[in-house]
Amino acid sequence: MQERENLSGNKAEEMMSELRAIQTEDLESRRAYFKKLSKKLLYKRVFQYFIFEERIEAGFNAFIAEELPEVK
Questions:
Q1: What is the residue range of 40's domain?
Q2: What single string gives the DSSP state of each residue in 19-44?
Q3: pTM of this prediction exceeds 0.90
Q4: Total domain count for the chain?
């Protein structure tokens, strides 16, 4: 956020590429967790776990959003 005023196109592209890589890794990790958990637990419990995890992540993201300056 501190660099947004002077952010070059190349740097923005590099940062977006890194963000996509992180998101892809996160999705692959969630798929692996789903596979492992669904072998041991009922799908209902696995679903509840993932919903709970999503709510925690949403709360965390909301907290971060409150601390960031407004984008103009």
A1: 4-67
A2: HHHHHHHHHHHHHHHHHHHHHHS-HH
A3: no
A4: 1
In this prediction, residue 38 carries a pLDDT of 95
Q: How is residue 58 written in tokens?
A: 């949403």
The verdict on residue 72 lying in a domain is: no
Separate counts of helices (H) and strands (E) for the chain:
2, 0
DSSP label of 71: P
Q: Is residue 58 part of a domain?
A: yes
The answer to whether position 55 is within a domain reads yes
Q: How far apart are CA 5 and CA 27, in angstroms?
A: 31
Q: What is the pLDDT of residues 1-54, one digit of tens each?
A: 566 677 888 888 888 999 999 999 999 999 999 999 999 999 999 999 999 999
Residue type, 26: D
pLDDT of residue 47: 96
Within 8 A by CB and 6+ apart from 50, the residues are 30, 34
